[in-house]
Amino acid sequence: MSSVQIRDVRKSFGNFEVLHGVTIPIEDGQFVVLVGPSGCGKSTLLRMLAGLENITSGTISIGDRVVNNVQPKERDIAMVFQNYALYPHMTVADNMGFSLKLRNASSDEINKRVKRAAEILALSPLLERYPRQLSGGQRQRVAMGRAIVRDPQVFLFDEPLSNLDAKLRVAMRTEIKELHQRLKTTTVYVTHDQIEAMTMADKIVVMHDGIVEQMGTPLELYDKPENQFVAGFIGSPAMNFLKGHVRVNGVATFEGPNGVKLPLKTAPAASDGRPAVYGVRPEHFTIADDGAEAEIIVVEPTGSETQVFAKLGGEQVVAVFRERHQFNPGDKVRLRPDPSVVHLFDEATGKRMNA
Amino acid sequence: MADVVVPRAKPQMSEAYAWNQLKHNRNWLGFWFMLPAMAILIFFLAYPLGLGIWLSFTDTRIGRVGHFVATENYEWLWDDSIFWLSVFNTLLYTFLASAFKFGIGLYLALLLNENMPFKAMLRAMVLIPFIVPTVLSALAFWWIFDSQFSIISWSLKHLGLISQNINFLGDTTWARICVIFANIWRGVPFVAITLLAGLQTVSPSLYEAATLDGASRWQMFRHITYPLLTPIIAVVMTFSVLFTFTDFQLIWAMTRGGPVNATHLMATLSYQRAIIAGQLGEGAAISSAMIPFLLAAIMISWFGLQRRKWQQGESND
Known about the structure:
The complex is a heterodimer. Chain A has helices spanning 42-50, 92-102, 107-120, 136-149, 166-183, 194-200, 218-223, 228-233, and strands at 4-13, 16-26, 31-35, 57-62, 65-66, 77-80, 154-158, 186-191, 203-208, 211-216, 240-249, 251-255, 261-263, 275-280, 285-301, 306-312, 315-321, 332-337, 343-346. Chain A is of the alpha+beta class. Chain A folds into two domains: 4-233, P-loop containing nucleotide triphosphate hydrolases (Rossmann fold, 3-Layer(aba) Sandwich), CATH 3.40.50.300; 240-346, CATH 2.40.50.140. In chain A, helix 2 (92-102) crosses helix 3 (107-120), helix 2 packs parallel to helix 4 and helix 3 packs across helix 4 (136-149). Chain B has 14 helices and no strands.
């Protein structure tokens, strides 16, 4: 196990820079998730960490060692690929033992370590099978087995669950997290799925267009997104954004689209009249007499909760209610955002304005 | 219980019945669909093969119907040193040419699979020897290896390495080397391009995984590329061996089997005896003698081609 330091790392393909100076400290034993939309550079960063892409500038160190010019096999890392990259002509046992074999480990040693890994991942009955004879979830576990057999300093996961069906994905999510809790190996996990990031990470790094937008614990990102991008990316359904102006005369309020008045707990004193974006999560709406009037468009019950799409000040918003209201399309309701958890962003820069 | 009579509708044989059978009996319909292919195979493959084997048991000559002579032709051949020389030549030719074609083809395929500038153009260029008609390339080689005008002799002389022309096609060893070289030149593109196609089916992520597992370039080839390529190698080498073993055009255009039969293959000897000398029976016997060799080659590749366990798409049990 080791800490990993990524310092001001840049990556260019030709003249095109895809990573613009990324700095991410990763503590020993931490489970860090790099999350962002496709093309944000998260996979490139992971591949640079693995040594599959070279580093244009900046440094990456694993433990105390700068690994910029260290061969992949000497970095002591293991990677799980999106398509698993299992060797089709080798049995599960051979797949898992391949790296040890290349290191000239004795066959006893290989057997012992493969068996141990197989036990951890419940692969013992499948050791003599070929990848073709396995289901998606089993292949996924073999890919992880191949990683843990080596007992590396760092695990790297490159969107490992995106080829699985929804149900299996949830199960494997738990399995990977459990594995990490058991082995406590430093892990860097890349995904585009914010739910995976939220559920698994000790620390989430949100990336966008080659920069780090924000990093922190899942709940920090959920509660205090530093900018509008992170606010919109984390949480499902996504946060509602309403454009308007801040009013600070006596009591702080937000004047939304078509003059809708929305409550604010506090606002910076100097922000009076500033164009801003009001952010409220769907789950932070309540039905209240002093709420803003909205017209219901669509009601989507999921059983545990109900998603309601409504027009508020002419803009479409989505609200989620745990309790069961009797709503019909066309109904007028009064929606009140909880002012203690609303977010305010500068319209021009997207930066968070309220505390 | 034999006296229990089951009332049965009488089968009504009619046109409608036959049509219905055609519509509903898939085997019957399938037979009709297979018929054209069967006819082609019977008339153009099975019949000539059968006729050839039959001729080898007769003393047929051109212009004279032969009589059955049992194995007399084969007995003659058994004592014919030229026939045995042609068998030796054919085996040597096939073995050396195939081995080189495999080696060079694999090397070229690996090279062309790398990222490099003008990749598409280089790949197209590799195919050139394959596109040129065999007889034309054989004629070109004939000039290249000519005893007086050979460009190789000319160049070596100007470099001061030799003082006299090399008699490429006049010397038995040189002649063998030359025809084998020409065959390799012609056969490499087929092997290279087919193996390249095979290489491209290997997922790049396997190499990345192997890199992280600590494999060197050689280990990647040994443990990933080669095993994944074996099914294609088996197919391509089977074809290559069959084509080389039965080669005729190149030899006939370059040497006609000479000098002193040093480059006579079974195919060229058969042609010479059957068509040039008119001994159809004997020529057919030489051709038929190729069958055991070809069958052996096919058997070897058949076992080599058997699907490996990892290729079988077994479902879970």
